[in-house]
Amino acid sequence: MWAERTSHFSLSGIREMFALTKPGAINLGLGQPDFDTPTHIKEAAKEALDKGYTGYTPNKGFPELIDAIASYYEQYGVQAGQEQIICTSGGSEALHLAFEALINPGDEVILPDPGFVAYAPLTHVAGGVPVSARVSADDDFRLQPDTVADRITDKTKALVINSPANPTGAVQRHNEMREFVELADDHDFYIISDEVYDKMLYRGKHVSPASIDPDRVIVVNSVSKTYAMTGWRLGYAIAPAAIVEEMLKVHQYIQACAPSISQKAAYAALTGPQESVRSMVDEFFARRSGVMHHLKGIADCVTPEGAFYVFPRFATSDTSFDLTMRLAQAGVIVVPGSAFGRFGEGHVRISYAASQQSIDLAFQIIREQVSAR
């Protein structure tokens, strides 16, 4: 009755947990900043409405926004022209277009495991085969080049890298990125680099593999996390022009163009004041310290270097799903590690994109529930 491709995956484990949220529950499962979109961005959207920007836009996006994206990425050493950038309805569409443009039936895609919940389903939708590359707490959850090398076959078409990473907060090093690019060059595959948390860093500077070899990399990003604009649904991809042309073919028929008002708002975000970004990251840094303090004595946890998640392993015999269900009944929503891949089992993802008061109260409940087992 329906396409076989959808039988290979189920609904997101993150969304399953949201469905269990009861009135009054503390939601530490949410993957979005708990900040309002900055005022100057909202004002730009209002102005766009008043000026009548309510119709279709060029398929790839407004030229001035594309130029702003190119300028934004110059800070990472990435040079891109208009023909190398496409604006999309969120980073999610950009990911989908990348998979559709690259993957043929039977092609293998190497994915970090645990990794973001969309990667394996999008591989299946494109007709590909997901191949897990384990990331381990022993390596601070950073994907290791040797692990990737061991998973390469003559069917490998792409490698997905996510740095800073969801669900672990891991941040890849420059030398690791260089080795990934060298593997892609040597074995003739592409890198899909998910960089939506590029500004959510607590040490060092973001490294994009596109700065090493832009011909081998599709960058996926959005304004969602950096500017607290998840609901605006505005993302983009930077890739070799020939790949962007293929992505554009799919984009034209499933989306036509990214939302016009959101494009104008994104332009204001990228070109306007950046103080709100720095303030938000500073607040996440302070919350991370508090979360790590709460976890002492009840869980093993790598200190994340980016994003706004921790990925602890609690001292309990429960499966990650059973633990999250028990916590949900007690009034705290977190996400089972198993939702992010088979190597996520035993962990849970906790988001600290919530107020410090909510975090403190949630951990009182978590400590009680874990200690009771």
List keywords for this structure.
single chain; alpha/beta; three-stranded antiparallel sheet; 39% helix
- End-to-end span in angstroms? 45 Å
Helical segment count? 12
- CATH-defined fold name of the largest domain: Aspartate Aminotransferase, domain 2
Strand portion:
5-15%
Total number of strands: 14
What is the element string, with H for helices and E for strands? HEHHEHEHEHEHEEEHHHEEEHEEEH
According to CATH, what is the class of the largest domain?
Alpha Beta
Overall morphology? globular
Radius of gyration: 20 Å
**Low-pLDDT stretches:** none
- Secondary-structure class: alpha/beta
Major sheet: size, sense and barrel closure?
Answer: 7 strands, mixed
CATH-defined superfamily of the largest domain: Type I PLP-dependent aspartate aminotransferase-like (Major domain)
Number of domains: 2
Mean model confidence by pLDDT: 95
Helix content: 25-40%
Query: Which architecture of the largest domain per CATH?
Result: 3-Layer(aba) Sandwich
How are the strands of the biggest sheet laid out side by side?
2-8-7-6-5-3-4
